[in-house]
Inverse folding.
């Protein structure tokens, strides 16, 4: 079945129109893409290099043209992505900075740290010294108190000894002053009494006079009393005077002389010679 020449003429024109319409559409798409890209910022994309779309035109002869080859499918031409425009940043006008004179730096007041360790050490030493002095004072006072108490005890002991000694001496003195009662055999005369009398004094008879004699520790006669009278008072007094002028040897006990008392009888006899 053969095609008419009119239809053969119409087919190439239709093809051309289609191709042209496709090219226009592609161009419009490119323009739209460029417009969109120009108004948006996108990260820099790598350039994709592809070969341009090759279009082959077929020459149609008017002589019994052979049937047209089947039209190759029109591949949509992929336009390379345009390089993104590098939008130069608007130069930033730096504001003019007027250099100000540096203000004097005011340092913050540093806190004053007072090292009081020396003061604390000094105070501690003073406290310890005060305690030491106080303890020494207490010890000294205790020692002095002990000395006073010891002195008081010793004084009391001495006083006691003194009193005891005084008492002993007093007793001894009293004992020495208290005459011992002696017998005639215990006394000894240094100077014996010799009464002087006459027969006239005896008034014609023998007489006996007994006297009590007291002598001190030295043997001196201190007292003479008549305890038995001769009956003639004048004769008694002669005997008393004779005894007072006499002297005994000291009476001693253990080497200590004591006063004593003794009774001494005197036998007064008539002298035959008158």
């Amino acid at each position: 079945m053969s095609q008419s020449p009119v239809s053969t003429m119409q087919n190439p024109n239709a093809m051309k129109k289609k191709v042209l319409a496709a090219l226009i559409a592609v161009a419009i798409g490119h323009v739209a893409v460029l417009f969109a890209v120009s108004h948006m910022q996108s990260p820099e994309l790598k350039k994709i290099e592809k070969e341009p779309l090759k279009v082959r035109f077929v020459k149609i002869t008017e002589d019994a043209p052979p049937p047209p080859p089947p039209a190759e499918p029109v591949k949509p031409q992929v336009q390379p992505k345009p390089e993104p425009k590098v939008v130069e940043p608007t130069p930033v006008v730096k504001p003019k900075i007027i250099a100000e004179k540096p203000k004097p730096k005011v340092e913050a007041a540093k806190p004053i740290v007072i090292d009081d360790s020396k003061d604390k050490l000094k105070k501690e030493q003073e406290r310890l010294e005060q305690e030491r002095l106080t303890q020494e004072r207490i010890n000294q006072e205790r020692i002095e108190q002990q000395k006073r108490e010891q002195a008081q005890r010793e004084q009391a002991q001495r006083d006691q000894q003194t009193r005891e000694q005084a008492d002993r001496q007093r007793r001894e003195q009293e004992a020495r002053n208290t005459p011992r009662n002696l017998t005639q055999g215990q006394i000894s005369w240094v100077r014996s009494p010799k009464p002087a009398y006459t027969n006239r004094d005896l008034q014609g008879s023998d007489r006996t006079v007994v006297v009590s004699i007291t002598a001190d520790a030295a043997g001196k006669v201190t007292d003479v009393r008549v305890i038995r009278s001769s009956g003639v008072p004048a004769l008694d007094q002669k005997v008393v005077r004779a005894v007072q002028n006499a002297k005994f040897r000291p009476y001693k006990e253990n080497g200590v002389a004591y006063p004593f008392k003794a009774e001494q009888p005197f036998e007064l006899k008539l002298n035959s010679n008158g």
Residues 1-86 form one domain. Helices lie at 5-38, 117-177, 199-202, 233-244. The chain is about 40% helix and 15% strand.
